[in-house]
Amino acid sequence: MTASDQALRIARAAVTGANDKLGQDIVVLDVSQKLGIADVFVIVSGGNERQVSAIVDEVERRCLESGFAPARREGDREDPWVLLDYFDTIVHVQHTEARQMYGLDRLWKDCPEVAMGSVAGVGGGTT
């Protein structure tokens, strides 16, 4: 099983929003083989809480424009880690230090990275 088309559409909208707000180290992982509750993780870093907040706002805006509303959000915009749950796609926006501490990239390293094609700054762990 691979990530659904809908999960990839949500991920693309999220990545576009994160990229617009200068999100760093944007990674999209296909977790469908390892996790039964989601197909895709989008992981993005912000340099400080204010940038994390801006990224979260823009991701939500882009996803809503594409017809997707989050089922829930964990964390406040001022927190170092905000999770946006779109069922098939889970977006993790983390302060750089929180990302290093929790190491989601390492935890899910066995999952294939999804190329987002024409969205600049995605893949390879850098923007």
Structural commentary:
- By secondary structure, the protein is α+β, with helices and mostly antiparallel strands.
- It has helices spanning 5-20, 49-65, 96-102, 104-107, and strands at residues 24-30, 40-46, 72-74, 81-85, 89-95.
- The protein has a single domain (5-107), classed as Beta Polymerase, domain 2 (2-Layer Sandwich).
- The protein contains 4 helices and 5 strands.
- It has a 5-stranded mixed β-sheet.
- Strand 3 (72-74) and strand 4 form a beta hairpin.
- Helix 1 packs across helix 2.
- The model has no long low-confidence stretch (mean pLDDT 91).
Topology:
Blueprint: H1 5-20, E1 24-30, E2 40-46, H2 49-65, E3 72-74, E4 81-85, E5 89-95, H3 96-102, H4 104-107
Parallel strand pairs: 2-5
Antiparallel strand pairs: 1-2, 3-4, 4-5
Describe, in short, the structure shown.
The chain has 127 residues and is of the alpha+beta class. It has 4 helices and 5 strands. The protein has one domain (5-107): 2-Layer Sandwich (Beta Polymerase, domain 2), CATH 3.30.460.
Which series of helices and strands comes N to C? HEEHEEEHH
Report the helical percentage. Answer: 25-40%
For the record, give the distance between the C-alpha atoms at the N and C termini, rounded to a whole number: 29 Å
Q: Report strand order across the widest sheet.
A: 1-2-5-4-3
Largest sheet: 5 strands, mixed
The total count of strands amounts to 5
Strand residues, percent: 15-25%
Using the coordinates shown, work out and report the CATH topology.
Beta Polymerase, domain 2
Uncertain regions spanning at least 5 consecutive residues: none
The Cα radius of gyration reads 13 Å
Number of separate domains: 1
Output the CATH homologous superfamily: Beta Polymerase, domain 2
Label the structural class.
alpha+beta
CATH architecture: 2-Layer Sandwich
In the CATH hierarchy, what is the class? Alpha Beta
